[in-house]
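Re: the request from the purification team.
They wanted to know what the chain is likely to look like in 3D before they choose a buffer screen. I agreed to run a prediction and write the result into the notebook, where they can find it.
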Amino acid sequence: MKSPLIVVVSAATELADHLRDLAGVHRWRLHEVKTPAGLATALAAPRPAVVIWEIDAGEASSAADGSLADVHRAFPDVPIVVVSPSKLSDDDRPGWSAARLNLGAKHVLFPPWTKLVLEDLAGGLLAASIRRITGKDPPPPLPRGDAAIDLAEGVYEDE
C-alpha cells in the first residue's frame, strides 16, 4: 500500500503546519496544494487519503464550491474536511455548513479550532480509510520525540 496521504488545500501554511507532526509520527505523507486545481493530481494514486480544505465562510466561494463538488464526485471515498478561517453568526453557520456537506464535505469546522481538533479529525478519518482499504489497523505512531520518518522501516511502499 502506498503511504497514506493528508492533502491540505490552503493559500496559507497554517493548516499544514498543524498537521505536520501528525503526519510525521504516523509515517503518512503531507501534501500541500495552494489551489483546488492541484488536488486531483495529489489524489490520483490510489491510497488512503483525507483532504483538509480551507474555504473562507466570509467570502463568496462559488468557485471553491464547484471544485468541492467535482473532487467529491471524482474521489467519493476520500473524506473532505472544510475548515473556515472566518466565523459566521449563529444564524448563518447551519446553512453555510449544510451547503458544504451537500457538496461532499464530511465535516465543517469554524473557529475556534485547535491543532488537537485538526489532528484528531484528520487522524481518525485517515485511520478509518486505512482500515477500510487494508482491513487492518494502521501501524502505531512513533513516539512524539522521534517524528523523523525512517523509509528503511518499510511500513509503506516507497513512492
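For the purification team: The chain has a mean pLDDT of 87.
Please add any questions underneath this entry.
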